[in-house]
Sequence to fold (541 residues):
Amino acid sequence: MKRSWLPGFITLGVILFLFAPLVVLVVNSFNASRFGGEWEGFTWMWYEKLWAAGEIWESLWITLKIAISASLATMVLGTLAAYALHRFRSGLQNVHHMLITLPLVMPDILMGMSLLALFVLTGVETGLLTIWIAHVTFCLSFVTMVVLGRLQDFDLTLLDAARDLGATQAQAVKKVLLPLLLPGVLAGGLLAFTLSIDDYVITFFVSGPGTTTLPLRVASMMKTSRSLPVINALSTLLIASTFLVAVCSHRLQRRA
Amino acid sequence: MSTASRTSRQWLLTLPSLTWLAVFFVIPAILVILTAFRPADLQGGVGPGWTLDTLHELNDPAYLPILWRTFSLSAATTLICLVLGLPVAFQMARAGQRLRQVLLLLVIIPFLSNFLIRIFAWKSLLHPEGPLTKLLISLQLIPENAVLLHHSGTVLLVLVYTQLPFAILPLYAAAEKFDLGLLDAARDLGAGPWRAFAKVFVPGVRRGLISAAVMVFVCCLGQYVIPQMVGGASDEMLGSKIAQRVFSDRNLPHASALAGGLMLAVLVPMLIVALWQQFGRKEES
Fold:
């Protein structure tokens, strides 16, 4: 039967729509023209300016510290949560499941606002710690979902088999469960890492003095047109690293 | 394993995430609603005692256009994202294994790319000196002095742009599980391609449609960065007001009242959908 070409055509259009602005941005990071309206010749100038902008690298360091520690924490919390959700069927797990899924559909601004209310009312000074708490909170649900997806493909009777063959509970978990779960846990961790690096809205609410993360820095740079081409250069590097992370995470999740 | 040790093991495994979410998700959400009934203090915190003043201040007709704009922009974005997302999900599901993986990656990359960068890309594309403006002027499609930025149309465009991957991914997850052979069956029975798509495929991915719609709509409701960056002064959404109350006016109770209202507006439909899906599952089994 003849297949309609329309869905393919729309898909092509959507992919072009999704990528065109990013491609223009990457091309303009090498464009000598300040506003990128016309091609005025190839230049590394914006990358040199980016390299010399110390405050950006300082922000990157803060962002990485938060992203690494938040993704490690969510990998542990999320794996435990996913295992509990998968292993047990009970009223407790129904509540647990609801609590894990709700943050996924909570608009960022509400999560930022409610954490800010918590910190203001309990008198906690906003700073690195509060950003870390916020990031763990919004990444936890995503990591749990990724690990849970992996667990659903996993045959839990393998654990019983290991026990029957004489392994202790601890050995069965360490030698059978963890190695099989590892790709899922790593993919979840990578997702948490990207979400954490990316977050602007929630971080904006719970950040304090001296904790300007990279997205906060980019947002303040966007307000002055002087540094626009430098943002192009920075964005190009960030898009390239997102690309790498996406490919890695994709590989991890596919390896069954 | 005894029941008692099984129960204690369950609690042991559940407690870390449950406690974390209770302390940093449930309690803060309740606090926001409570803060709406507290007086503001001048340092941006809350004063002692309880008051209904904030709620009286909210009873201001100036909020109506903002509420309407927030709702209509979110609804329009959701609709456009579903209309564009459905054929893409369909195409991905019917493509061969290799092409499917490539398409999935192509949707995930913008999804994972920095949110601010994606807005920034449009901001510079639509800039008066930017490439798109120059191109459209040279093609004489828009007048010489046209301004593409800072319209409500720009806000809609960028909302669709940022939310589209959020719509495609759940739609694809549903389409992947859908048995495409059913479409051939419908065609064999004499349905045209449109009819087969609308009457067989669309109901078949119903669950994906609901998750995509909820995801996009709810995300849009809380937006403030997009109207702030690419919209004009008259394109404020509810989120802009919340951010303004927190950061410019430093009036936490007022911001909390707005956020609390939005929270209820988000959670109530969510609960309805959850109950409906629960009901649907019982019906199917």
